[in-house]
Design a protein that fits this description.
Ribosomal Protein S5, domain 2, about 20% strand, 3 domains, 19 helices, five-stranded mixed sheet, alpha+beta, about 625 residues
Length: about 625
């Protein structure tokens, strides 16, 4: 077969296959064009999942007649000031979007140049370009795409449902809106306006407000700000506390020079930064914005511009890890406020499940045989010594026990030692009780805090071990009688190979025959501990990790297991002084809001929420 030159229409359709994957791709390209035109208000309207109609209107700079005629030609762009493809300072630059869209759909563009009294329009119908004509339009540009993929009907077979396509369009608009808080966005799909974002201030507060509209108010409450720079690369944004997490990474948003991207390097950096603060299989919520010189990043890797390549990937990765760790460390002992709200919701649900369908804080109590309750509710019959609102049956049966119920008892003093007001003002309050020898209940100025003593102390011991490790090693204490621990031969070999690492953490052991090890020293910080249980858990960790982790990561994983064995166990009774000491150390220790396994160490219940639970508000 002889070589022949493809027609411009075929070339455009091939390009469309690379750039236009689905209707959401069209929306992305058109919204980016509007942003490059300086728009401060963008409206997106779709119908039929974007197949029947996509309309993007903006109040940008508009185009003159010559520019309008040229913009639908292939590789014609206003976004490259030079021929340097590494100096990309705009959202789009390839010059393929409009001609590609026009080759597979009916495309019409109506525009009016800022300061001009006339508007102009042009159409491209499945690759056939029309002339520039006068039109009526306000300042800015309106682009309409109808009957998408009508020139390539085979592509329609691969489209998903209208609901799925609308979801993809909404996701694209949301991602772009995150990076442009000073621009207002409106999205209407079908007959419903699904998104309306007013313009916000172009500062951290405005950005957080925009993120909260998209990621939820919960994120706004539990987000910590990060802002750092190194060697010409800066990172900013907001990251959720580790205790605010999800089973997937759908709420992780990464941007490079204002462009939403999906990059494995950046995702890996986020995972490394959170490290031991998240439960296995859980993902944090965050939005990070990386800014650097365009020459240091290649955005021309993928036709849809969703992937990037860094000249110095190590610097970008280390900056993200360092920035996230610093921001989370500044959060100190904070845990998500959603924990308390979730606990109260659970209590409310369980309370309603125990009664009938109408159960609730203000619902009537259920009937009970011989109790004097009335299924229709109480009929107030005030009686001497009986609180108003109680029924006559109960009044007769319990007249004597309730006699004088509204009068004070002989001794109204509290049964516990009074707490200093300053203690109640502390973030974690003053310890008031220990429940089930596991949970510490503390009183704060505006609520209560419930602390899991084992999880909290586990994090404290772990952070001490890491600090000692960073400062040169963990203090050891020799065992009066060395302990022999029996293990599988494979476990003995694994511990022998890791003996140097374990020694840095204060655990000195050596093989003792083919199926046991002898332990001579343990970390002094652990005090009295189950040496055999500790060694067996460490053997399982070392065998499970293999050689895949770096030395420091292996050491920290071992330290986490040690901390679990050296912490205050559930079931141990604590004195008030010990409970308060634990609370004060939590307040002074970074990351104390979650244990080494990522579970929350405490839950805070606000007084207003508790009163609402009991129908007092």
């Amino acid at each position: 077969m002889p070589v022949r030159q493809l027609s411009p229409e075929t070339i455009n359709r091939i390009a469309a296959g690379e750039v236009i994957e689905r209707p959401a791709s069209v929306v992305k390209e058109l919204v980016e064009n509007a942003l490059d035109a300086g728009a401060t208000d963008i409206e997106v309207v779709t119908s039929g999942g974007g197949i029947a109609l996509i309309r993007v209107s903006d109040n940008g700079s508009g185009m003159a007649a010559a520019d309008l005629a040229l913009c639908v030609e292939r590789h014609a762009t206003s976004k490259l000031s030079t021929e340097d493809l590494l100096d990309i300072r705009t959202m789009g630059f390839r010059g393929e979007a409009l001609p590609s869209i026009g080759s597979i759909a009916h495309l019409s563009i109506t525009t009016r140049l800022a300061g001009s009294r006339e508007a102009l329009a042009i159409t491209v119908d499945r690759g056939v370009k029309g002339p520039v004509k006068p039109a009526a339009h306000n300042a800015g540009t309106r682009v309409e795409v109808r009957e998408l993929f009508s020139a390539t009907p085979a592509r329609l077979k691969f489209m998903k449902s209208e609901l799925a396509e609308n979801r993809a369009i909404s996701e694209i608009v949301k991602r772009i809106a995150m990076a442009w808080p000073a621009v207002g966005f409106t999205l209407t799909t079908g007959e419903r306006t699904g998104l309306r974002l007013n313009a916000c201030a172009n500062d951290p507060a405005g950005r957080l407000e925009r993120l909260g509209r998209i990621m939820g108010r919960e994120f706004m409450t539990d987000a910590v700000m990060l802002d750092g720079a190194r060697e010409g690369v800066s990172v900013s944004g907001f990251a959720g506390l580790p205790t605010l997490n999800r089973p997937d990474a759908a709420m992780q948003f990464l941007f490079v020079n204002g462009r939403p991207v999906r990059d494995r390097l950046l995702v890996g950096a986020v995972r490394a930064a959170y490290g031991d603060m998240l439960p296995r299989g859980r993902h944090p919520l965050l939005a990070l914005f990386l800014d650097l010189d365009p020459h240091e990043v290649d955005v021309n890797v993928h036709p849809a511009k969703t992937e990037v390549r860094f000249r110095d990937s190590g610097a970008a990765r280390s900056l993200i890890i360092g920035g996230l760790r610093d921001a989370l460390a500044r959060a100190g002992h904070r845990a998500t406020v959603a924990g308390g709200a979730a606990a109260l919701d659970m209590l409310a649900r369980r309370g309603s499940e125990t009664g009938d369908a109408s159960a609730g804080p203000n619902a009537p109590l259920p009937a009970s045989r011989g109790s004097g309750y009335d299924r229709t509710g109480w009929s107030p019959q005030p009686s001497r010594g009986v609180p108003p609102g109680y029924g006559p049956g109960l009044a007769e049966a319990m007249q004597a026990p309730l006699e004088g119920f509204d009068l004070p008892s002989a001794d109204t003093a509290a049964g516990t030692t009074p707490v200093e007001p300053a203690m109640r003002e502390r973030p974690l309050g003053a310890a008031r009780a220990q429940l089930h020898e596991t949970y510490i209940v503390a009183e704060t100025a505006d609520g209560i805090v419930i602390v899991d003593q084992h999880a909290a102390h586990e994090r404290l011991v772990y952070e001490r071990l890491k600090t000692m490790l960073a400062e040169g090693g963990v203090a050891r204490q020799g065992l009066l009688m060395p302990e022999v621990v029996e293990l599988d031969p494979d476990a003995v070999d694994a511990l022998a190979d890791a003996s140097d690492e374990l020694a840095k953490l204060g655990l000195c052991l050596e093989p003792f025959g083919a199926s046991s090890v002898i332990v001579r020293e343990v970390p002094a910080l652990l005090g009295k501990t189950d040496v055999a249980g500790l060694v067996k858990d460490l053997a399982a960790d070392v065998l499970g990790e293999g050689g895949g982790l770096l030395l420091m990561e292996r050491l920290e994983a071992v330290a986490s297991t040690m901390a679990c064995h050296g912490s205050v166990r559930a079931g141990r009774r604590l004195t008030p002084e010990e409970m308060n000491a634990l609370l004060r150390e939590m307040e002074a220790t970074p990351k104390a809001g979650q244990c080494n396994h990522g579970r929350p160490t405490y839950v805070e219940l606000k007084r207003n929420d508790i009163e609402r639970l009991f129908g007092r508000r």
